[in-house]
Protein 1
Amino acid sequence: MNLEPLVKKTLAKIKLNKREKILVALSGGKDSTTTAYLLKKFGYNIEGFHIYLGMKGYSDRCLEAVKKLCKQLNIRLHLYDIKKEMGGSMCYIRTAIQTEAKGKGLKNCAICGVIKKWIMNKKARELKADKIATGHNLDDEAQTFLINIFKGSPELSLNTGVISRNVKDKQNRFIPRIKPLFYVPENEIREYSKKMKLPVVYEKCPCAIDSYRIQVRQFLNTITDKEKENIVKNSEKILKNIKRKQTPLNYCELCGEPARNKVCRMCGMIGVRNKNSCS
Ligand code: AMP
Ligand code: ZN
C-alpha cells in the first residue's frame, strides 16, 4: 500500500478527532518530519515540539530543520532547551548518569529515550495537548519487539502500539502517544521525504551507538518489508490479550509523573532527592 493511504488507515484505526490538539515531537529527522507533514496535509490540528539537545553541530542542524518545517506548515513550534532547563546538554547529563553507580551499564539511547519521554509528557500536559505524535516506523517497532523478546522481557512491548494510553490513569497525567507511521517501512519514509523535499537532517544522531539495537537493525535489513510487517502485526495480536490485564498506573513520588513503580524511570536514573530538582 502507498504511504499516504496507509497512514490514513492507521489514523482511522486510532480514531483521531480533527479538533484534538496533537503535539508532534519533532527531532528534525525524516520520520517525525513526515509525520507532521502528513497530519497537517490530512487536516489535523497540530503543533510542533522540539527538544534542543545541545550537541554541537548536529543539534543545531536539527533545530534549523524543525524551524523551517514549522514555518513551511504554518504551525506553532514549542522549544525545550535541555541546557537551560536541566543545566547541561544531553551528552553531559547522560555521561553523569553513566558514571553514577545506578546508571552504569545503561545504553546511550536508553537514557536519552527515558529523558525525552519524561519531558514530552510533562510539556504536552502543560500545553494541554490531547495527544503526542512521534515518528516511530515499522522498522523501529519490529526492532523493539525483537529486542524485548531476545532480552527476555516481552512485557515491555505492552506499552507499544499505534496508540499507547493507560486506561488506569485516574489523574489523567499520561498523555496518549500515537504513531501514525507505525506500519510504514523506513525506506518508504526516506523516499517520500526526499520526493516532497521536506527539510530533514538525514545524518544519524552521533550518540546512537547502542550496539545491540544496531545488530538487530542489521538483521532486520536482511528480511523483507513484508516480513517486518508480519513481526509487528503478529506482535499486536499476541499482546492484545495480555493488554487487558493492565495494572493501575502509579505517579512518581518525587516528580509526580506517571510511573510503573514508586519512582519513575527518570527520577530513578537521575537520583533526584526532592520534587523541585527535576521539575
Ligand atoms: P528516537 O528515540 O530518537 O528514535 O526518536 C523517536 C521519536 O521521538 C522521533 O520520531 C520523534 O518523534 C521523537 N523525538 C526524538 N528526538 C526528539 C527531539 N529532540 N525533540 C522532540 N522529539 C524528538
Ligand atoms: Zn519522577
Protein 2
Amino acid sequence: MTSSGASPRYALIAGSGFRDFATDSASQQVDTRYGSPSSPVRELEYGRHCVYLIARHGENLQIPAHRVNYRANLAALESLGVNCVVAVNTVGVINESLEPGQLAVPDQLIDYTWGRDHSIHDGNADNLQHIDFTEPFCAELRRKLLTAADAAGVACHDGGTYAVTQGPRLETAAEVDRLARDGADFVGMTAMPEAALAMEMGMRYACLSLIVNYGAGRGQASIHEDLHAYTATARMLSMKLLREFFHRV
Ligand code: HPA
C-alpha cells in the first residue's frame, strides 16, 4: 500500500539510455485528452508486478526533451491506474564528488525550462490547484529506490539538486558554472515538467538518474566521448537496481 492507502501500481518513464529495454513485451496505444504519449505503453513483467513503460523520447529516440508531450505521457499512465512513477533519466554531473557511470536519486530540482506545457491547469479555474512543490520528489519512493540499491550492491548517491535545462543542445561551460553557483549537482533535460505534472495528477514520482557525463567544461574528455564511455555501465547498474526494487515493493 502507498501511505495514501491505494495499492501501488508502477510505471517507468525511461529515457535515452533505454532504447532496447524490453522490446518484446506486450504494448498498447493509449490516447489521452492531451494527445498521444511518446510511445505505446509497454507492459513489463517484473516478478509479481506488471510495470508499465513509456519511452520518453519515442521508440526511436526521435523526440527531443523540449518536444516530449509530458502531459500525454502522464495522463496515459494515469488512465491505466498508475500511481507510482519511477523516472529513469540521464544527467551530466556538476558535483565534483561524483563521477559518470554512477547512479543518483535526486531530492531537489531547479527548473530552467521554458515554453513546455507544464500544468494540467490551463484555463479551467474550477479545478485550479497550486500544488505544494517544496519537496518535488516522493520521499517514500526515493527511500525504496535507495534501499533497493543497497540490497543490490549498487552504489547510488542519495539526494542532490537536478537542474532541468531546455535542450536539445548541451550547456556552455559558463552555464554549468552558473548552475553550480545555483547549487545544482546534476544537469538534465526532462525532470520538468514531468515531476510537477505527476504531482498535479496525484502520482508519486521519483527520479533514478544515470550520470553519463561531466557537465560542460568539467571533464577531461568531450561530452560525447563521456556518453559513449559511461551510458552502458550506468544503464546496467540501473537495471540491476530496478530488478531489486520491483522484487521488494
Ligand atoms: N546536460 C543536459 N542534459 C543531459 C546531460 C548534460 O550534460 N547529460 C545527459 N543529459
